[in-house]
Structure formats: C-alpha cells, structure tokens
Amino acid sequence: MMRKWIVTGAGLLWIALAVGTGAGNLWAAPQAAAQDQAKPTYTLAEYNAYKDADAEQNPQQKITKLDTFVKTYPNSTLMPYIYPDYFKTYVALKNYAQAIEYADRQLALGDKIDAQGRLDAYYFRATAFYLGSSDKTFQTPDMLTKARDAAAQALKTLDDWKKPDALAADVFAGAVKTYRTAFTTIAAMASMSLKDYPGAATYYKGLLAINPADPATHYSLGVVDLQMTPPQASDGFWELARAIGLKVPNASKVQDYLKNSLIRYQQASCDKLVDDQVNELLTLAASSADKPATLTIPSAADLQKARDDTANFLPALKAGGGDGKVMWLASCGLEYPDVGVWAMGDAAADGDTIDIKVYRPSSQDPDAAQKEIDAATDPNMDLKVAGQPEASRIKKGDQFRFTGTLVGYSQNPFLLTWDKAKINTEDLPEDKAPKKGPAKKGPAKKAATEN
Hints:
Largest sheet: 5 strands, mixed, barrel
Number of domains: 2
Number of strands: 6
Distance between the termini: 109 Å
Structural class: alpha+beta
CATH topology of the largest domain: Serine Threonine Protein Phosphatase 5, Tetratricopeptide repeat
Shape: rod-shaped
Order of helices and strands: HHHHHHHHHHHHHHHHEEEHEEE
Strand content: 5-15%
CATH architecture of the largest domain: Alpha Horseshoe
CATH class of the largest domain: Mainly Alpha
C-alpha cells in the first residue's frame, strides 16, 4: 500500500505558520505593571527573567533560560507564557515529543488560560504530532488516542471561540480556517491509524468541507471507505477516482491501487472489464465533483448471486442495463459445462479453429424453448472450437452440448462468443464418410498354353 499520509497544501501551510509566526500568536505577553494598575502576581525580577528567556533567539540557549526560570520560580503565575515558549522552541528544534509534553502542560492549566491560549497550545501540539508522526513512538495506541482526543477537544474549543474585539474579521476567519485544518487533519490521521474508519471518514469529510479540491484528502477518504466493514465501495472507489482527476501525487500508483482494490472487491474473471470500470470511474470523476446517484459497484457476493441465477442468465444479458452489466461481469471469463444448443449453420473451418454459429433459447420450458428455436433466424452464440477436428461434422439443425469459456458479449445484435469450446463427444454426429479398406486383388491371369 502507498504511504498513509500525503501532505496536503493546507497541511504545509499550517505547519509553516506554526514554525514561523503561528496561527495562535494572537494573544499578548504580560506587560510590566504600570503604577496605576493592580499589583501584579509576579515580582519584577521574575518578570525580567521571563522577558530575558522570551527574547532569546538561540533555541538551545532559550531552552536553558526557560529551564532556569522554571527551577527558580516553579509556582510562577507566568507559566501560561513560559510553556508556549517551550513548545514553540521545541518544534523549531524538531524535538516533537517535548513540544507535545509542554503543550499538554499548558492545556493542564485549565481556566488559567483563555480559549485563545488553549487553541494556541492545541495548534502546536497538532503541528508537533504531524511532523513527528513518522517516529514509531508516535504510533502507539496511547499516543494516537491522545492525539485524536486532543484534536477533537480542540475542534470543540474552536466552535466556542468568539472573535476578539482587537481582531479584524478577515484575520479571525483565516485563523479559524487554519486551526480547523490542523485539528481535523490530526483527528483524521490518528483515527485512521487506530482503525477507527468511520471516525476517520467523518474527519476527512470535514477537511473536504474546508477544501473540496484537495486530491490528497480525497485519496485518504477513499482508502478509509474501502477499509470499513462492510466496505463503502462506491464511495471509496469514487474518492480514489476524484483524487486522480485532481492530479494527486503519484497518480499512477493511486490508479494501480484503485484497480487492485476493485479486483479484490469483485473477484471478477475478466481483466478487461475491471479496466473498463476503472476508466468509467476516471471519466466520471474528471467531469463532476459529485458522485452520480446511480453509481453502483457490484461486490463479489453480488456477482456470485448473479452466477447462481442461471434461469436469468440469457434474459439479463439480453435486457442489458444494470442487471445485464452485473450478469456480464459475473459471467465473463468463466468456463461453463454442457451448454445445450442448436446449430444454426454448418460448422466452418477457420484455420485450426472450427467456428459454429448456434442458438440457445432463453426459456427453460421445453415447449416454449422449441417455439423460440423454430422462430429463430439468427444465432445468439458463436463457438470457437480448437483441437477437435471432428467438430467439423456438426451440421445445421444438430443439437449438442459444449463446454467453453465465455469471452464476448454484444447486446444488440445479441451474441455471446465462446472460446476454447469442446463439443461433448456423445453428441458428435457419426462419421458417414465411406471407410477405405485395402484394395482387392483381381484373379490371377492364367499362363498361355502352347499347342
């Protein structure tokens, strides 16, 4: 299988924001108290130590200064400002586990931070998890569950977030979009790794609500749909086709995955029909953003049901439509034994192959079948017999049975083509050609008698 996660354009955007200014850098650091303000809950030395650490540009030295601050002032009321410095710096240092730890410490402060401060912590936690997700330690059930639950809680917090008066409406809307993309992406990723496919599908649909044209999200949703029990086949195959139509990275590999998934889902015998379905999906998905309401993808169980419905074999193929499509998909490439038919003409040799045009009635009732045969003017089956020269003895009107592989279907005019056909030897006409025996010798001539 391909990599589970394809970085989306939106994903790259929110990561860049996190490493740079950050979508959540909207709240102010504490200021030195003016004389007319209430007495602060921290000392001037404490404040200056915080400011010194906060202003440090060298990441390693910044961490050292933050550690010194925490050791010196373990119960400081400035921790809501210290912890963000920690997790942002650890993201820059690519120490994603530590970034998550300090984001969680910030979130554990509860009511000591406002909604905007919680969103900032959730945001950098999501960023750290995203960037560190290739690490095996991030793929444990515990880490994945915490990531999913944190992202879900972040989305609830975001829904309750009110626009600060100081923020312009467009800035607020952009921040909401960036936050929602980050949280929904992590919730989807973690849910999928936890094999919570219905949950993952919900989150991927949420991402498509943000950006309907993101091919990577369509791909991931398609994978999730096909992993469900039972598979959401028509949705899954459609999403994969949409991803290809929107130029998903490695589109050829995605198409291979689509085809192989379809083969496993249907277990059909004709490769060409699988290719035809893939091409139909790609054509539809390239021209429409919405899955057609009539799109159905028959399963292996559907095909087996059609195979078992032998009485409806010819009627379904003749009628065409949805039932005919399923019956043909179920039948093509299969070998059928002892198919009873009537010859509509003499067998004709075509090189090493003998071609016989035949007719088989649709009705199973003997009287109705005979009437159908009597009224038939054209064959409805074409047999290709190889390696059985005696089949050339078949003449118009002969009734016989054959075993063959169904390889061709035309609805109008209706004709089924069979390959590798073998006539039941019990039904072959006798060879009426006179048998040639050894030549008879004439009577011996008598020798002449001399007088």
